[in-house]
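Consider the tokenized backbone below.
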């Protein structure tokens, strides 16, 4: 029985991959919506500046990029953590084998 348990633990990260992909896609979508709403509150504009927008200055473009990056990182971390905790609660095993970072 101990061997079966070890085998299940080895297969969990592979089984978690599609779940992780879905969580990543969901978190990216949520972060994009949160950024659009945040930008609307900050600048009272519907569209955030793009790096190739000729009519926007460096400061505005870099501010938008910094805000977008911060929101994306927070949302992704929250969704990843919640997903990992849910897997651990349901299976008793943490979804990734090592204690390292994301990459």
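A designed sequence for it:
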């Amino acid at each position: 029985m101990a061997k079966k348990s070890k085998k299940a633990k080895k297969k969990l990260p592979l089984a978690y991959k599609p779940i992780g992909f879905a969580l990543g896609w969901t978190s990216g979508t949520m972060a994009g919506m949160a950024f659009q709403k945040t930008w609307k509150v900050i600048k009272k504009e519907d569209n955030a500046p793009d790096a190739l927008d000729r009519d926007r200055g460096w400061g505005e473009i870099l501010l938008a990029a910094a805000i977008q990056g911060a929101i994306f990182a927070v949302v992704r971390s929250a969704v990843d953590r919640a997903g990992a905790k849910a897997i651990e609660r349901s299976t008793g095993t943490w979804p990734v084998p090592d204690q390292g970072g994301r990459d």
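The longest helix spans residues 2-43.
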